[in-house]
Design brief:
Oligomer: single chain
Number of helices: 20
Largest sheet: 7 strands, antiparallel
Structural class: alpha+beta
Distance between the termini: 18 Å
Helix content: 25-40%
Shape: globular
Length: 553
């Protein structure tokens, strides 16, 4: 039976027996719930959610981005994983960027930042072919409606429009769509994306290949991007295929935790849990100095290996088995001083790659969402255009905002994440799935680049070690160790709801404490669905730091 021992929250956990969805925008959650009510599967619901998010959350999601899936329960074969991340274009070489005046770093915005094929739509295709029940065309009605006739701008989008107005003004089509009155629109004003509505309608009618990667949409994307200076070409789109993948896993308190393999940072999330497995986390208490201190120190250790090694495993031989072994965790745990913080830069990776290249800290904007259906199929899904508004480039008259995920490639040839044509870059986005006795127990995840493994660890420990329900775990005070949007230093950002004395003691232990808002959206928008396999009840939660809700029926 699902129960909760944690604190009261601002909203209840949602419980239902036939289906559940959760996303960072209420209209997207409604699209997913509608798909379930019409007899759709959790995969149908996830596609409907994502399509709507591409319209209503254009700063965090879009057809021009990548995605990763975990699917379990129902008719799934164990835990299934989809990697829908596009590789670098055939022309994306060091020489190409040097010829364009960039021999040290790929630009973070603009056409030169749009250098990887968008993978998300072909991931929809793979999932729908195996687990879809509803017709493909029927999954896009809401998204088309909101793009064509508009939807009310919500708080998160309004805030980012103000922040990114200078960036949006750098591209005439971005400015035309997102600053239609010559200024950032505010909460409640209507955003219309007519070009995107036409693209979504064509995609719905013609399917993912002809409707996106091989037909007129692809040709217009390729034409406009080439004209603007991007290395992406039509063949990069037509040759792209998402792929089924083998997930990676580790154990925590008798549960099996699943993540995507590299090129995602999923193994860092598992390493954090391996380090915590050696402690009696429950004895610390859920909002104590010991709790925050030990989790932050474990995060630093896992990130040292991540930053040293993470890249496309087809190009870099990552010692993954060693990193995920409990023997390795037992050895690395000795680095944690129970009363003193170790400086981030002082933690060496456990295994050297050999490169002395400076590591970049990942950032990124993302949407995480999850769905579960009446057959027990559960989806954990994450989709992103990387930075807020991606590359800040619209692909011609398609209305598609292109991702800038490839801007994270290094132009240092010795770096493990060095740019190569056809290579997949270091990915921050990681959906997670918790299993018990071969059955899904929890689908969970969050947006937030560097913060994703951290918030996942917070959610899991609060649910498993402290008995919180999913809403309590999502609403509990959050932290972020590392860099986030635009920051140059690695701070320990703590929400102001964390007690003053806890923040003071962490500072005295040597942590670079920075207090942020009580409910700070830059620390992630998390969602989760927990499954009680005995009663068949789903429990859903959504993050008040975003604009989403969980809906069941």
């Amino acid at each position: 039976m699902i129960n909760a021992n944690g604190p009261r929250t601002g909203r209840p956990a949602i419980q239902a027996s036939r289906g559940m969805v959760s996303s960072p925008h209420y209209l997207a959650s409604a699209s997913g719930q509608d798909a379930l009510r019409r007899g759709g599967s959790a995969v149908d619901a996830a596609i409907a959610i994502n399509a709507t998010l591409c319209v209503v959350y254009p700063h965090m999601a879009g057809l021009g981005g990548d995605a990763f899936w975990l699917i379990a329960g129902g008719a799934a074969r164990g835990v299934e994983a989809i990697e829908a991340s596009g590789p670098a274009a055939r022309l994306a070489t060091h020489e190409f960027y040097k010829a364009n005046g960039h021999d040290e770093q790929i630009p973070m915005r603009g056409p030169l930042a749009a250098l990887t094929a968008p993978g998300a739509v072909d991931g929809w295709r793979l999932a729908h072919e195996r687990h879809g029940k509803l017709p493909w065309k029927s999954l896009f009605a809401d998204a088309i409606e909101y793009a064509r006739n508009g939807m009310a701008i919500t708080r998160s989008l309004a805030d980012w429009l103000v922040t990114d107005a200078p960036i949006l003004n750098g591209d005439k089509d971005m400015a035309r769509i997102f600053l239609p009155k010559g200024r950032p629109q505010r909460d409640g004003e209507r955003l219309i994306q007519a070009d995107l509505a036409k693209t979504l309608a064509f995609l719905a009618e013609h399917g993912p290949r002809e409707g996106f990667y091989e037909g007129p949409i692809a040709k217009e994307m390729a034409r406009s991007l080439e004209a603007a200076g991007s290395p992406l070409r039509l063949e990069d789109l037509t040759n792209y295929r998402a792929r089924w993948s083998e997930p990676i896993s580790s154990r925590y308190r008798g549960y099996e935790v699943f993540q995507l393999p590299p090129s995602t940072q999923g193994f860092a999330a598992l390493q954090i849990l391996n380090l915590l497995e050696g402690y009696d986390v429950r004895s610390w208490g859920s909002d104590t100095v010991a709790y925050y201190h030990h989790l932050v120190e474990a995060i630093k250790i896992a990130f040292a290996d991540r930053d040293e090694w993470l890249s496309d495993p087809a190009h870099v031989d990552i010692p993954l088995a060693r990193f995920l072994s409990m023997d390795y965790a037992n050895e690395r745990r000795k680095l944690i001083d129970p009363v003193a913080a170790r400086p981030f830069e002082a933690i060496e990776p456990g295994i050297r790659h050999g490169s002395k290249a400076e590591r970049q800290a990942p950032t990124g904007d993302t949407v995480y969402f999850c769905a579960a259906d009446s057959d027990g199929l559960v989806v954990s899904n994450i989709q992103s255009i990387y930075h807020d508004f991606g590359a800040a480039v619209i692909a011609g008259d398609t209305g598609i905002v292109m991702q800038n995920r490839g801007s994270f490639f290094s132009l240092d040839p010795s770096h493990p994440n060095s740019l190569e044509p056809g290579k997949r870059t270091f990915h921050t986005i990681i959906p997670a799935m918790l299993m018990k006795d071969g059955k899904p127990v929890l689908a969970y995840g969050t947006m937030g680049g560097e913060g994703q493994p951290q918030t996942q660890a917070a959610m899991l420990t609060r649910i498993i070690d402290f008995g919180f329900n999913v809403q309590q775990a999502i609403e509990a005070p959050r932290w972020l160790m590392g860099r986030t949007w635009g920051t140059a230093s690695r701070d320990l950002a703590l929400e102001a709801r964390i007690p003053d004395e806890v923040r003071r003691e962490l500072r005295l232990r040597g942590h670079p404490v920075k207090t942020v808002d009580a409910w700070d959206g830059t620390l992630g928008h998390a969602q989760a669905i927990r499954i009680d396999q005995e009663s068949g009840i789903y429990e859903g939660g959504a993050d008040p730091r975003g604009d989403g809700i969980a809906l069941g029926f």
